Amino acid sequence: MDSNGDDLPKKTQHYVSAVEVARKAGVSRSAVSRAFTPGASVSAKKREKIMAAAEELGYQVNDLARGLLARTSRLVGLVVTNPELGYRSHLVAALTKALIHRGSVPIVINTGRTEEELVAAQKTLFGYRAEATIILSGSPPSSFVELARRNGQPLIVLGRSETGADDVNIDNEGAGREAARVFLANGFTALGFAGTISRTPTTIERENGFCQEAAARGANVIMGHGGNSDYAGGQEAARQLFAGSDHPQAVFCVNDLVAFGLIDHVRRHTSLRIPEDLSVIGFDDIPEAAWETYNLTTFRQDPAVMAAHAVALLDQRQAEPDRPPMHDRLNTHIVVRGSARIPASFKL
């Protein structure tokens, strides 16, 4: 035998089969199948023997094969772009936890933003007969929704609306309006918005709410847009907002990651102090927002609540497949920390 072990016999992966469990327990193969099927007829004594044999051998039911035979599965696809970033990572974690508790098997499809990539994810999920698809980001093409409808597969969209699909949304516009009111209550007249060029329905709603409320109250809004809604995008937006002498007195950031980038840029490249000279409000309330480094005032978007509502919509859709599309709108609230001055008289 050489040092690479080329003469060693190749090992193949082996899963304990129902036939082996039947042989060990001294019963038929069908008896094993009935023992692992809820409600199936099998005597208590025989079930006990089968379970003991299965435990000793390490047998697990092949749920995927069983689902394929029945033309159903417990798989639920989570279609998401950049699932490792910011709030999205916490939402994926909350959804997988909620789905597992439900008895489903979550499968995360990390896809891009193009129609071709989303359609590829769609084909994968339909190929494995996933029982539902939940889209966390991106803009699903109409063909995605139509194919889901023809296959009778529930489609739930989070953070946006799509014709023919159930959705869960946050009151983004209302949060934007409240951010403007908080700043204006301090007497600020020059406000800033830190957003992103890669605009999504949620970021557009936050921007529109903020700018419309400011305009209605006679305040000027200076705009800064980074390439993406992440830390680097926040720094890029900050460079635009603070490039000249006419900089904002307070900035509403489209999310916490953008706020972190903006705060760090201001601290390193300007003489402004937060919150004495500049108030900053973010959105999402990810755990890092509470870190002493940022101490960020932000709007809370609870991933566990969002996940619970998504699962509830899935249950309702499966119970009433012909029901018209359902739209679940959640409120958010501001979490006050040290990055923004909040007047004591302001009613939150």
Automatic annotation (TrEMBL):
Statement: the UniProt record of this protein carries the keyword Transcription regulation: yes
Record-linked SUPFAM superfamilies: lambda repressor-like DNA-binding domains, Periplasmic binding protein-like I
SMART domains from the UniProt entry: HTH_LACI
Sorted UniProt keywords: DNA-binding, Transcription, Transcription regulation
UniProt cross-references to InterPro entries, sorted A to Z: HTH_LacI, LacI/GalR-like_sensor, Lambda_DNA-bd_dom_sf, Peripla_BP_I
UniProt-listed Pfam families: LacI, Peripla_BP_3
A single GO molecular function term of this UniProt record: DNA-binding transcription factor activity
Protein name according to UniProt: Transcriptional regulator
Organism: Phyllobacterium myrsinacearum
